[in-house]
User: Which sequence fits this backbone?
């Protein structure tokens, strides 16, 4: 790790996109309530992450609400990790909501994630639209909603997060 990367101590926000959970519990904005709202994927991100989570949002599968949560969190954090809404059903709109905000796509993240997913689930990996990009020097990762997929993605995110941030900020 380069010196400038070691000095980066990223603050992270998590957005869980789940209409069913949102309908049951309403909008939740407290990272300490993940267990209360039974957000296993969001909690898995928090538990596996090597960095501080300072923001959390639970939103429905709705483009405007996803963008609103993203814009609110991005002011406070260096990285946003979303979980849910990345599939191919008509209600899955996380990618459609956030991709237009991205300055640079990190195609390698989705490509490697799908390759690793293929090793675990076979051809079902083609259904994944896991995505990452840079927005104004900050990084966003959009993950599927399954706990297993989140665990796999965190194996990619944890070791690379400082390096990605340093490039996004032009510190390379």
Assistant:
């Amino acid at each position: 790790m380069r010196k400038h990367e070691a000095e980066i101590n990223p603050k992270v926000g998590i957005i869980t996109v789940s209409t069913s959970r949102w309908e049951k519990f309403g909008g939740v904005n407290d990272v300490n309530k993940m267990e209360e709202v039974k957000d296993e994927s969001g909690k898995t991100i928090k538990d596996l992450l090597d960095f501080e989570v300072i923001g959390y949002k639970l939103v429905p599968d709705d483009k405007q609400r996803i963008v609103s949560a993203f814009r609110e969190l991005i002011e406070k954090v260096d990285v946003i990790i979303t979980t849910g809404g990345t599939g191919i059903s008509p209600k899955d709109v996380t990618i459609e909501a956030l991709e237009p905000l991205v300055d640079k796509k990190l195609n390698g993240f989705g490509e490697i994630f799908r390759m690793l997913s293929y090793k675990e689930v076979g051809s079902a990996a083609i259904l994944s639209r896991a995505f990452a990009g840079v927005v104004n020097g900050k990084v966003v990762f959009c993950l599927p909603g399954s706990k297993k997929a989140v665990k796999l993605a965190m194996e990619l995110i944890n070791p690379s997060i400082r390096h990605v941030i340093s490039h996004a900020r032009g510190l390379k």
